[in-house]
Amino acid sequence: MARTEYWNDPKAPKPNTLIPASNLLVVRDDGALLLQRRRDTGQWALPGGVQDIGESPAQCAVRECEEETGIIAEVTGLLGVYSPPGHVVAYSDGEIRQAYEVTYIGRPVGGEPTVNEEADGVRWVLPEDLDSLDIHVSMRIQIGDFLRGEYPRVD
Which residues form a coiled coil (predicted)? Predict the structure, then answer.
């Protein structure tokens, strides 16, 4: 399913849903961050996705990380809750979502970077190499908060 992301765009369509999602910012001992390149947008992002009934936000973040990247991780902290009204995601099926993401910090405990149906690229990126990647502003804000030590954040 195709998606279009809007950031503080007055031309963005009006959201019709608000669905809880979780991300996991996984950090290796050398400071490298785990990123995936989304097949639907081509942009690099933190692993994450929609929370299922019966799981906690943290469980969702760990599950989505493994599904999308092949990396098994554990949660070590909370980065923040990100739900700015100006971040709108429109899907090709007519759903228009205001983003609502609980983002956790984690560390890898197993697995290997693996591409899949959602991600056509998975890799560890050192902070000094982030500017060379196409990363949506919403993800840049979350990564920036972590790198500056400005968390937990609640929008």
Answer: none
Q: Can you give the length of the chain in residues? A: 155
Residues 92/47, Cβ–Cβ less than 8 Å = no
CB 58 within 8 A of CB 25: no
Where do the structural domains in the chain lie, given as residue ranges? 3-150
Rg value, the chain, Cα = 15
SS3 at position 136: coil
pLDDT tens digits, residue range 102-144?
Answer: 999 999 999 999 999 999 999 999 999 999 999 999 999 999 9
Task: Classify domain 3-150 by CATH architecture.
Answer: Alpha-Beta Complex (3.90)
pTM metric for this prediction: 0.95
